[in-house]
Amino acid sequence: MKKMLDLLTEEMQKAFEAAGYDAALGKVTVSNRPDLCEYQCNGAMAGAKQYKKAPIMIANDVAAKLSESKVFAEAIAVAPGFLNLKVTEEFLLDYIKGMAASKKFGVEEPKHPKKIVIDYGGPNVAKALHVGHLRSGVIGESVKRIARFMGHDIVGDIHLGDWGQPMGLIIHELQLRHPELPYFDESFTGEYPAEAPFTIAELEEIYPTASGKSKEDPEYKAAAMEDTFKLQSGVRGHRALWDHIIRVSVSDLKRNYQKLNVEFDLWNGESTVHDLIPGMVDNMKKGGYAYISDGALVVDVKEETDTKEFPPCMILKSDGASLYNTTDLATIQMRMDEIHPDKLIYLTDKRQDLYFEQIFRCARKTKLVEPETELLHIGFGTMNGKDGKPYKTRSGGVPRLENLIDEINEEMLRKIKENSANKGYEVDEEQAKETAKIVGLAAIKYGDLSNQPAKDYIFDVDRFTSFEGDTGPYILYTIVRIKSILNKYKEQGGNLDKAALQTVQNDSEKALVMELCKFNATMEAAYEESAPNKICAYIYDLANEFNRFYHETPILVETDETKKAGFIALLVLAKNVLETCIDVLGFSAPERM
RNA sequence: GUUCUCAUAGUUAAAUGGAUAUAACAAGCGCCUCCUAAGCGCUAGUUGUGGGUUCGAUUCCCGCUGGGAACACCA
């Protein structure tokens, strides 16, 4: 289905043309003065100079051509040259019926579906997820789901940090603690134990300890580097131990991401591309792109148009070792070879803006990607505490993501119990906990996603879990209300018939219908701009319109069955649209709350 | 030092170059014999500063002030 505004614009363009003006002036937008009109067109003012006429005269000419329109019930020219518009009942009903009958509520399949790889999450193995990982996971998951809904083929890759210095540090520390393990016995030729010699809790403790020691003790550091080298060169015991580290760590990561309703299609990491690095580096040298500067191998990525200094992209350190850049570039090569994507998306902290600009330029210059391959870095802002500074625990440390989720869930549970006590009904403890988890996740995700990704935002537990205002819980409450009515309707023997939509009865119903009609345009904008916040803003408006309608319109007591079925059909559509939206945002609604 | 980025009610956030800048929270007032009051309605309050482009600027351009960040052997 075409977008509502496109249909209106087409109609308006015909009128401009019929009146003898440039059709391009006939752009229709949603009214920003709902008290005056539903839609507006400002083309007459834009065209005033071109035609050397007062805008109001042009507007009058165009309005005259619209008197017979089947689309616009009203087109009034207003000083200085606005065209104020209202649509006809028939047009609106027709559109909403088409939307209800459509599989994706009016979103069409793309003519050329894109193959996209999205790189997000980016946790390190053997380290607990902390709040810094929240945005990459939450925004990335939503960007992925939006693209998928729009009909594109998108693959999400977690891109684990699983191969650098930290691995050597952990292995070295393990050797000091348990020198008797067979992994460190180079003469050992038997089968290594299937069971890992540590738990996830130990692993999470070992890394910070080892990291701290290496900063103070050069010998310790040297030994850890030696272990890193052994691992990377394939020493059997080191590899076996590393396998354990990955297995233990990944199963813990999966558990945590599941709590966040974040799912990756690929669990690749830096280690995945290790073997590709020598070949890639070779090609860069042969191609004449890479040269030695201060001992390091670099590729110049300056461009003619740069006004500022642009540092070259480093490929290998002066000791010949690979670094972050190396694995990222090799990962691009692997993705191009295996997946052949049209577009690569990365989600990291916005502080890496310059870094990704270097990587992208380098990938283009060294022809790792096709000239038409799109490369996009979505840099997101910091999650701050109420003081406006990066979110910290009371003791000043970086809070674990798990603790943050628990904190929200506890607060949600407390509120659910408080609410039920106020209303005087009993809630089952287990049921309440389940509901608290669902609502808590919505609170966290909506709180994050409703902000523009690039901006810093303040993570305020009290505000996000609030029952009131522009929050996740408010959206869920609205959906629960609709579900409740639909359930009662079915209990009364009613059938949910999508086609039963009726001509709108009152203002609040019309407002709700018009809001629903914006769905496909909103989803498309959210996709094109990688902006989940647009969907949040949309469902907040939609929930508002529904609640107003709900408040003013008794539904189940309606005696005219045709009318009632029409209301119900509208509710079904509203519920489906809301649930589709929260699904692409990455959360869901409970049955009751 | 260079470059990037941000600046909107008391607070947190919106606004493809359009009319009277939009919400939420906090404050004040009203609405449950009625489908979940986690709701609805009403009142009061904002574009850092100086220029420019434009019929028209929160939006685009330049300067200033003030926050944040990046600037090759970390990731």
Walkthrough of the structure:
- The protein is of the alpha/beta class.
- Among the domains are: 4-87, Arginyl tRNA synthetase N-terminal domain (Gyrase A, domain 2), CATH 3.30.1360.70; 120-161 and 268-384, HUPs (Rossmann fold), CATH 3.40.50.620; 165-259, no CATH class.
- It is built from 21 helices and 13 strands.
- The protein has a four-stranded antiparallel β-sheet. Strands 6-5-10-11 form a four-stranded parallel β-sheet, sandwiched between helices.
- Helix 20 runs antiparallel to helix 21.
- The model has no long low-confidence stretch (mean pLDDT 93).
- The protein binds one RNA strand of 75 nucleotides through strand 9, helix 13, helix 14, strand 13 and helix 17.
Strand content: 5-15%
* CATH architecture label name of the domain at 120-161 and 268-384: 3-Layer(aba) Sandwich
| Shape verdict | globular
Q: Whole-number average pLDDT?
A: 93
- Number of DSSP strand runs: 13
The biggest sheet, with number of strands, parallel, antiparallel or mixed sense and barrel status, is: 4 strands, antiparallel
Radius of gyration: 29 Å
Keywords for this structure?
593 residues, alpha/beta, 4-stranded parallel sheet, 13 strands, globular, RNA-binding
